[in-house]
Design a protein that fits this description.
Blueprint lengths: L1 H22 L2 H13 L2 H51 L2 H7 L1 H5 L11 H13 L1 H25 L18 E5 L6 E6 L3 E6 L3 H8 L3 E6 L4 H11 L5 E5 L5 E3 L2 E3 L12 E5 L2 H4 L6 E3 L16 H15 L4 H6 L6 H27 L1
Parallel strand pairs: 1-4, 1-8, 4-5, 8-9
Antiparallel strand pairs: 2-3, 6-7
Helix pairs in contact: 8-11, 11-13
């Protein structure tokens, strides 16, 4: 009896569950079947889509790698070319680069001889084709560098290789006296509350008037011509100063404007450069005549200054005696105050001459 009951239980449950399904509305039963059937469709479509996308993704990855390789190759080539150009610009001059790359640039025109074999002609053609790109790059670099250096030269080099016109044949023996402007024959400064103020150095009028008879006087300043010209016109009303040279005539080097006396179109052995900063702003220290800088304090009181007048005896002596090379004369003063040193030498010379005269008188007796 017990076993018969146990075997009847599954059948009973099946009837009960079937009865429950029959008790449900028809719509709900169909909806559950549709949902269950739809749940299997995405799984099948996703697998098919993944199978289709796999080759496309693989090809996309290969294309992306190729593009990255090409891009980084271009960047590396440009970086290497830029580094090479920078090093060549720093280490070599334009003429040196042209000489070192001459063989490379001529390789484009390489042709095999007429009696060469076809293989050799093909190799020559291939070689010239391969060398075309590097040769063109080098030529482009040389053209750009030449253009840039010419542009920079307009700001760093004097405006001309001959800053002064040729000296008249009758004045070939005349020395050229080059004068700095600020802190040498004038003092000028500017402040926001008062603007510009300009002072003449004591003795500058007598200095110009006296030495204008012996020298060709030139003002050489690192200021702009719009400043130099009006100052010189007011300073030199008698026109003892023959020429004025401003910033465009200087050489810009290491952040500073230098006077290049070699561009004056004059004999270097007959040029004297007088400045309060002679050895600091001239490229030819052997022609320099140093003088004490002239400055004015805030009160505007002009100090007692005789530096220009003290220099007149030496400059007149040079003009009258015309040494063959003034540079050897200036070297003997060893950068000392030439005005005072010349006065001491003159006194010593006069004392010795007087002693010789007295000795001559004693011998006559």
């Amino acid at each position: 009896m017990t076993s018969a009951r146990k075997s009847a239980l599954p059948y009973t449950f099946r009837r009960i569950s079937h009865a429950m399904e029959l008790s449900k509305p028809v719509g709900e039963v169909e909806e559950e079947r549709i949902i269950s059937s739809q749940s299997t469709i995405p799984d099948q479509s996703a697998a098919a889509a993944a199978a289709e996308e796999a080759p496309a993704q693989a090809s996309g990855i290969r294309e992306n790698k190729a593009w990255k390789f090409f891009k980084y190759g271009i960047i590396g080539a440009l970086t290497g070319a830029t580094a090479f150009a920078g090093y060549a610009s720093y280490a070599y001059s334009l003429d040196e680069v042209e000489e070192k790359t001459k063989t490379l640039r001529e390789s484009v025109n390489y042709t095999a001889s007429s009696d060469a074999s076809n293989v050799e002609k093909y190799q020559g053609l291939l070689y010239s084709t391969v060398m075309t790109v590097p040769a063109k790059v080098v030529e482009l670099y040389l053209d750009l560098r030449k253009l840039l250096e010419e542009h920079v030269k307009g700001f760093t080099e004097p405006a001309s290789d001959k800053l002064l016109p040729d000296l008249h044949p009758a004045e070939q023996h005349v020395f050229t006296l080059v004068l700095d402007l600020n802190e040498t024959i004038i003092y000028s400064d500017w402040k926001r509350d008062r603007g510009w103020r300009t002072f003449k150095r004591p003795g500058v009028d007598d200095f110009l008037q006296h030495l204008g008879r012996f020298y060709e006087i030139v003002v050489y300043s690192d200021q702009l011509s719009m400043y130099v010209d009006p100052v010189v016109e007011r300073l030199d009303t008698n026109h003892f100063i023959r020429y004025r040279l401003s910033r465009s005539a200087t050489k810009y080097q290491d952040g500073k404007h230098y006077r290049d006396l070699s561009k004056l179109n004059r004999d270097p052995g007959k040029i004297l450069y007088v400045s309060g900063h002679a050895f600091e702003n001239s490229l030819q220290p052997e022609n320099c005549v140093p003088i004490k800088p002239f400055k004015i304090d805030e009160t505007g009181d002009v100090p007692l200054d005789t530096a220009l007048l003290d220099l007149i005896p030496f400059l007149e002596y040079v003009a009258r005696n015309s040494p063959s090379d003034i540079r050897t004369v200036l070297a003997s003063y060893e950068r000392r105050d030439i005005g005072k040193e010349f006065l001491e030498r003159s006194k010593d010379y006069q004392r010795r001459m007087q002693e010789q005269r007295q000795q001559g008188r004693l011998w006559r007796r």
